[in-house]
Amino acid sequence: xxxxxxxxGLLAALAFAAPASAQESETPPRVAPPPAEGEYRPGLxxxxxxxxxxPLGRPLSGDELDRAVAEVAADIRCPKCQALSIADSGAQSxxxxxxxxxxxxxQGYTREQVVGYFEQRYGEFVLLEPRAxxxxxxxxxxxxxxxxxxGLAVALRLRRRRRRSDDEALDGYLRQVEQExxx
Amino acid sequence: xxxxxxxxxxxxxxPLLALLGFAFRxxxxxxxxxxxxxxxxxxxxxxxxxxxxxxxxxxxxxxxVNFWATYCxxxxxxxxxxxxxxxxxxxxxxxxxxxxxDDPETIxxxxxxxxxxxPSLIDEGGRVAIAYGxxxxxxxxxxxxxxxxxxxxxxxxxxxxxxxxxxRMLARPAAATG
Lengths: 183, 178
Description:
The complex is a heterodimer. Chain A starts with a helix and ends with a helix. Chain A is an all-alpha fold. The longest helix of chain A has 47 residues, at 136-182. In chain A, 59% of the residues lie in helices and 1% in strands. In chain A, helix 3 (62-75) packs across helix 4 (92-106). Chain A contains 6 helices and 1 strand. Chain B contains 5 helices and 7 strands, in the order H-E-E-E-H-E-H-E-H-E-E-H. By secondary structure, chain B is an alpha/beta fold. The longest helix of chain B has 23 residues, at 2-24. A 7-stranded mixed sheet of chain B has the order 2-1-5-4-3-6-7, covered by helices on one side. At the A-B interface, helix 1, strand 1, helix 4 and helix 5 of A face strand 1, strand 2, helix 2, strand 4 and helix 3 of B. Strand 1 of chain A pairs antiparallel with strand 1 (43-47) of chain B.
């Protein structure tokens, strides 16, 4: 009841709101004031170590880093594209994810940690190659299963055809024997 | 012979139809977020005026984080709703906007023309969007007093969803921490 009242109130307020007029929010944000000149503030953004834990590998650089980034990028689906990896996509999201992978690998996070980080955030959908577990096993087992079933069907058919031709040959021979013994 | 073909055909068709039926019940554009029920990734971001917002400092108050952009039509569609929501729950729920791949100057112009429902935070390099697993704007994360993501809306959030989740967050007290 309370929810319905609140919803009605919100809808009524929206209906009477003037969308084009400038309406400054009166909500005072609980924010810190801009830094004074020379004041030190810790980095902005995300504290990756807080999200990912400690790096389990060694920091990579140069060609080794490039190769590792390319390997990780080839396994990760671009969230804004259709079936493209972030290695193959020019989308801004893909670029940001490649940069994130590069940053993490250069800090010593392993390929598994980096791929796991993206999976934790976006879900398994972000992996171009789904993990072979649960319902995904259908995807992995279906091709082999279809080939096996097809092979079985062909083998049964060939066997039946061979048996039929053997029976036909035997029938002819029996007819001949019957004719010869009748005379 | 015909009976066998029918049996094999049915054996293949029935599971396939069941799979299709299962799949058609889900919107392929909606990917469930693995972050719901988990702690919200903490971030520190500057707004358009250089003020710093630290999510950790907002602990104890429900927070609604909305990733948005001016080029995104559903973002414009939900703008009046978020304006009204931020007014309705002023002092109770903190509304935060994280700019998703848009120019801060364009955002500032938009806020001047249409009003602002909360700080517009600049996400350099899109790292916060990655940490939240954002596919595209608008996406709205509802974070309770304990800093746990309790719900996520993909696309323009509807009024009933906003009210339902906001009231759920307000009704739940923060868990005692030791």
